[in-house]
Amino acid sequence: MAPVVFLDRLNVLGVLCAALLGNVLATSCDCGYSLNQTNATSYALFTDLMETDFLHVTDLKAAGWTPQVYNVTPTAARGPYGKMALLENVVPNAVKNEWDWAGESVNGGDAGLQVYVRADPVDDMIPMGELVIQRTDMLLGSFRVAMKISSAAGTCGAFFWFRNDTQEIDMEFLSKQLNDTSNPVNLVLQSPQSAEAGYDASHTQTYDIYPLPFRPDDGFHEYRFDWLEDRVSFYADGQWLKDMTIDLPNSAGHLVVNHWSNGDPGWSSGPPATDAVLTVSYVKAYFNSSDAQRQRDYRRRCGKWDPQTQCVIPDQTRAPGGSNATARTFFFSADPDEVGNQTVFADWPNESRRSVDGGAEWGMLVFGVVVAAGAGWLGLV
Ligand SMILES: *[C@@H]1O[C@H](CO)[C@@H](O)[C@H](O)[C@H]1NC(C)=O
Ligand SMILES: *[C@@H]1O[C@H](CO)[C@@H](O)[C@H](O)[C@H]1NC(C)=O
Ligand SMILES: *[C@@H]1O[C@H](CO)[C@@H](O)[C@H](O)[C@H]1NC(C)=O
Ligand SMILES: *[C@@H]1O[C@H](CO)[C@@H](O)[C@H](O)[C@H]1NC(C)=O
Ligand SMILES: *[C@@H]1O[C@H](CO)[C@@H](O)[C@H](O)[C@H]1NC(C)=O
What we know:
Layout: H1 2-24, E1 33-35, E2 44-46, E3 48-53, E4 65-67, E5 70-72, H2 74-77, E6 82-85, E7 90-91, E8 113-117, E9 125-133, E10 138-148, E11 156-164, E12 167-174, E13 184-190, H3 192-196, E14 207-211, E15 221-227, E16 232-236, E17 239-244, E18 254-260, E19 276-289, H4 292-302, E20 311-312, H5 324-327, H6 360-378
Parallel strand pairs: 1-20, 6-9
Antiparallel strand pairs: 1-2, 3-19, 4-9, 5-6, 7-8, 8-19, 9-18, 10-15, 10-19, 11-12, 11-18, 12-13, 13-14, 15-16, 16-17
Bound molecules: 2-acetamido-2-deoxy-beta-D-glucopyranose (5 copies).
One 2-acetamido-2-deoxy-beta-D-glucopyranose binds next to strand 2.
């Protein structure tokens, strides 16, 4: 019995030391996450990340997201119906076996976060789902969602970055537009121009309908936009679609996923004939922060620029769904060594939840106390 206990204690000391060292030594992505190698003709570097693996999330708030609750009257929603955002329309639906990436889900249907639009209006409003990310300091970045759009006609499914009504970057899907011959994604920058047009961006230069080479309601695909100083570039499954270069946002905002309908025949139409579900399997955000403390954190952890402590963000170039093998995609957050001093909300298979938030001083203090306590317990002090 005694030797086992001894090994156990040595083990614990090892873990404590590793934790302590992890906070002192540089981790591999301390100088940021980049689009392209930093010696490429052109690249963009971001200091912060937030990745959410909805295939394994059971608690949205703990994962860094807030489901929304609000009512918008038909008049304010500019449609025959208003919008009623409800908690119950945002439903985590993880894969049943936490070590799998595909297969049976907890509630049935496709695994991932389910966002519903309901068929039956309530008080002239159509029940819908919306969730926002908890970070509001996103200023430039590469933003990615993997989702499967509803095939029930009469909804709008959207992934967007939002500051306010004149600074917004949108990828929107109208389920009524999806069929075997046409599968458009609506690309929109809301701008002062679209505000003047009564928030109808379709008559502005920062609106485009891009025909996709696949059916967005047949499976999961990655939709992505890179917001850089001089352009917003849109992608689907890693294929470049379009750049927009005017009316770019210039201040920080946050990410939103929603699925809604207001019956407007010129846009969402609806309500859908049956309850309609949009399913999200991940959101990955690599961005710069507008927050002064996060900027100081970056300068402190990166120090003198060193390309060795900078990581390239992989491109997702195939549809991220289907089998166990193809639904598994890359997350820096799965490796603590690649997310030092980042906010990480993880629920990785067979690993406990980690939160490696900023504030190394506090981290050092806590680890110091823990190590001292551990050493005391080992009889070393
Ligand atoms: C990365 O490289 C690709 C291919 O050369 C290019 O199209 C893209 O604009 C580059 N991205 C950035 C952010 O520079
Ligand atoms: C993001 O911030 C870092 C650190 O300040 C900077 O080096 C980098 O160029 C910024 N990225 C972009 C795309 O402006
Ligand atoms: C799915 O993949 C994971 C890791 O990639 C593996 O642990 C698991 O056993 C696989 N499940 C099936 C059903 O193949
Ligand atoms: C949106 O934010 C920008 C930057 O802060 C500001 O200049 C603009 O007036 C805002 N627009 C609205 C409609 O509030
Ligand atoms: C497919 O949708 C497009 C755009 O909504 C429409 O113009 C076209 O007629 C539809 N095709 C079929 C076969 O339904």
